[in-house]
Amino acid sequence: MQAATTANPVARKVTRPRADALRNRERIVSAAREMFVEHGPEVPLDEIARRAGVGNATLYRNFPDRDALVREVVCCVMDRTALAAEQALAETGDAFEALSRFVHASADERISALCPMVSSTFDKHHPDLEAARERVERLIEEVMDRARTAGQLRPDVGVGDLMVAVAQLSRPPAGTPCFSLDRFVHRHLQLFLDGLRAPARSVLPGTATTLEDLRQA
């Protein structure tokens, strides 16, 4: 009796995006981030395509509607900011220096200027968005806890306080190109960071602001 033979499985061909397609997608996300910060989430999509140097068809091929593009921008920015926090925690033994690096990186990414768009433009409970948000919030708390435990961060400051201040200091006025004020943003953020150092030189009104406080505001 002839032994049965087992056919080798046929390897499936995996279709990978072309390098130029990936570059176009990255250019769209980058242009959208800048224009959302400058003009808000209702900026015309054809203007985003023009700044990205792509056609409207390319934009819609990657992002079928405005919600998909806004969500991708916000998730991308939060992921990059979380990476900055991870690197700050890993690369320095000084807890407050790690916090400082994270704050400046957050300003560069415009995370706090973009995140408020979530509640007004699309489903803020989308799984991708929730995962990105949970990751960055966990890392912010870890960075601050480390600085507080080291006695370098005043104890009456919460994560919400940090994010409100970064949002206010890093968002340009409406209609202002978002990269034209960077030299002022980082100067003012450093003044803010100096005010976070322990020991505190004043008593803050109210109580430390949490992320939950911000969500309920």
UniProtKB/TrEMBL annotation:
<dbReference type="InterPro" id="IPR009057">
    <property type="entry name" value="Homeodomain-like_sf"/>
</dbReference>
<keyword id="KW-0238">DNA-binding</keyword>
<dbReference type="GO" id="GO:0000976">
    <property type="term" value="F:transcription cis-regulatory region binding"/>
</dbReference>
<keyword id="KW-0804">Transcription</keyword>
<keyword id="KW-0805">Transcription regulation</keyword>
<protein>
    <submittedName>
        <fullName>TetR family transcriptional regulator</fullName>
    </submittedName>
</protein>
<dbReference type="InterPro" id="IPR001647">
    <property type="entry name" value="HTH_TetR"/>
</dbReference>
<feature type="DNA-binding region" description="H-T-H motif">
    <location>
        <begin position="44"/>
        <end position="63"/>
    </location>
</feature>
<dbReference type="InterPro" id="IPR050109">
    <property type="entry name" value="HTH-type_TetR-like_transc_reg"/>
</dbReference>
<dbReference type="InterPro" id="IPR036271">
    <property type="entry name" value="Tet_transcr_reg_TetR-rel_C_sf"/>
</dbReference>
<dbReference type="Pfam" id="PF21597">
    <property type="entry name" value="TetR_C_43"/>
</dbReference>
<feature type="domain" description="HTH tetR-type">
    <location>
        <begin position="22"/>
        <end position="81"/>
    </location>
</feature>
<dbReference type="GO" id="GO:0003700">
    <property type="term" value="F:DNA-binding transcription factor activity"/>
</dbReference>
<dbReference type="InterPro" id="IPR049445">
    <property type="entry name" value="TetR_SbtR-like_C"/>
</dbReference>
<dbReference type="Pfam" id="PF00440">
    <property type="entry name" value="TetR_N"/>
</dbReference>
